[in-house]
Amino acid sequence: MRSALQGLVVADLSEAIAGQYCARLLGDFGADVTLLEPADGSATRRLAPFRTRDGVSLVFRHLNTGKRSRRLPADPDARQAMLRDWYRRADVVVLPADGREDEVERCNPQAVALRLSPFGSDGPLRDWKGPEIVLQALSGMMHNNGAFGREPLYGCGNRASFAAGLAGAAGVLAALLARGATGLGQGVRVDEAETAAAMCFPYVLQYNYNGTVKSRLDPNIPAGQVLCRDGWVCIWIYNHRWAAVCRALGLGALETDPRFSEPLERRRHWAELFALIQDTVADREAEAVVAALQREEVIAAKAYRPSELAQSGHLAARGYWERTGNGIALGAPFRLSRTPRGPVAPEPAPGANDADALPASRFVTAPETASGLAASRPLAGLRVLEITTAWAGPMAGRVLGFLGAESIHIESPNRVNSWRLNKEVPNPVNFPGGEPGERPFDRAFLFNSQNVDKLSCILNLKDEGGRATLRRLVEKADVLICNFRPGTLDRLGLGYEALRAIKPDIIVAELPAYGLEGPMSRYAALGPTMEMAAGMSGMIGYRDGQPETTGPSYLDPIGGFNAAVAILVALNHRARTGEGQHVEVPQVEAAMQVVGPQILAAIENGTDPVPDGNRVPTAVPHEAYPAAGEDQWVVMAARDDREWQALARVVGGPALAADPRFATLPDRLERRDEIDAILRRWTQTRDKHAIAEALQAAGVPAAPVQTPRDLSESAYLAHRGFFTRLEHPDAGAHAHPGLPIRLSRTPGAHRRAAPAFGAHNRHVLEAILQLSGAEVEALRRSPAMADAPLPGA
């Protein structure tokens, strides 16, 4: 079988980015996808950015390459008859925001019906308008972006919509696996606003643990930027890499300089330090500076402009770019060894396939090959091994665990998961009630936010006893996830080929930042530096300022979602063929999909976006304005004359609405400063929530820029059941944020808090490996295992 999803028939009725991206992902890996368009074409055909030479929407092209297109009849009866015919034939129906899953089920109980919408069909925000700036404001992410005292930055592109498309794909693929066991399809729902909130959840748990709110005033990030001859470079200076930074930059004299030699003094003189680094690198090429730092294992990245990515030697070496006949196309977000993405076909003209016969499904998953998946949860019976740390890898395992898999988090006794904070001096903001306790590594909100529903097994993989135990676990596992640097598994003798020899149908997923191969493959990265490498930061910032990022490691959860989708694609293939495979999720390349239209526009039009705060050429206003209280903000947007008139009436009454200076969008673009001044005066003494509610009631997109406290108290998220109260044996009971994937028959859920360090060592040895009592005790006394981190870990 050439493609993982070959024979799957998908009817794409969506009119928005999230649904069309979900369907595009399914099509990339073999599904037969037809875009069912209104007579005047899909709404995404009219979304900017456009290709200058012919006016083609690069949003549409990015979302719909490889699909067929058929026109829906204008006559309501004929349209309904055609839709019913598609519902009967399709395996998956991607519905518009106002679609009805029950209508699909009545026609075809085996179909999976996905509905993505900004806020859902019920709840307190059901009638709100949600462009990207609104979704980012509500998510809690925007609260972290930009400089204290200045307007927070929403970012770029349509990240919330693409993330929702990923979540939708995960839901659909899980529902297809459940169908293999039960014979029944189901409804899948994903809200863009809930998805956006799920991208920022660790800091909500921090608030729920101890009432503290992360502030832009004290970002506490050991990073800074310098401007080289040809671009900006971001450098992370962790305490344990200080000497390496000095070596890499030829600043050996600074290593023992009393201003910088000790961590506290270095933070106190941070501006002086980066001024010295700036002087050193000003005439050097950015890539050369990054390469020198990465050779010393210092995390650094160039902030590439989107157009520069087309000339990337690393991407070229990886064979990343493709051509469709209509232009350049981005490479796959992830790579599968047995069932890679097929060649990219051009996007369809409207109604290009009207004369074609309707496709027939050939996608059958026999229950006996479905890995014992049960009807209770879609991935029940699946076992996942995680050799992961921090956010992206654990996030992938968390998504699978939410959907019912048993996930075993394999931890090292001498190199503890960095989110357990074992090496750090205990900071009260990390712990419940501000108290580290006797085992602070079990009480850290970062680790506990990401590892719910998992078992903790401590294995020293540098010890043969630990490696042998892992090999025995692989015999009983379905998936192994690793997000360490490329080559880590192979160096331990645990690479894909070695594991496949133990378990032929194992799925091994690796999440290297830059891929398993290529000139930059060994580079270390974090979410913010991946944004630099993916071209995102080059589009974000204040006018004439340095590149900015979209918040606290936004691309880590994006990487986790991509990995979960890739694994689910591989699981669907395995359920039909019995084949496992090696999955590669190069997180920078996966992230490029999220800003794909902007990258294509920069490359094809030859012009990079110029960062200008929150301003965009398609709406005025499109900005954050100060509200009552310290660092409190509200966003609003007027994308057309109707929204502007409604906004003007709320703010200034009939006089402002009738003001001829602001009558048209070109007028408003010319007078943005005047409009901003008017709105700033109006908002600065008012409550941000009240402003947003008044404007949304008038039909104007608006939202408070929410803090973690706002999210914790959100009526919308409460209505969605986003929070689950979980009891941790050492951290206590707290409300934990959830995931946005809602399945009607086999719903996911968070069921238990994150595990204490080594809490399930005995369970893994006795219940899963079924070792004898003597074997268990011998292993527990050996260097292969531990119940607490070793000193200095």
TrEMBL record:
InterPro entries xrefs: CoA-transferase_III, CoA-Trfase_fam_III, CoA-Trfase_III_dom3_sf, CoA-Trfase_III_dom_1_sf
UniProt entry tagged with the keyword Lipid biosynthesis: no
Domain of life of the source: Bacteria
Molecular function per GO: transferase activity
Alphabetic keyword roster: Transferase
Keyword Transferase: yes
PANTHER family in the cross-refs: L-CARNITINE COA-TRANSFERASE, SUCCINYL-COA--D-CITRAMALATE COA-TRANSFERASE
Protein name: Crotonobetainyl-CoA:carnitine CoA-transferase CaiB
Organism of this sequence: Aureimonas jatrophae
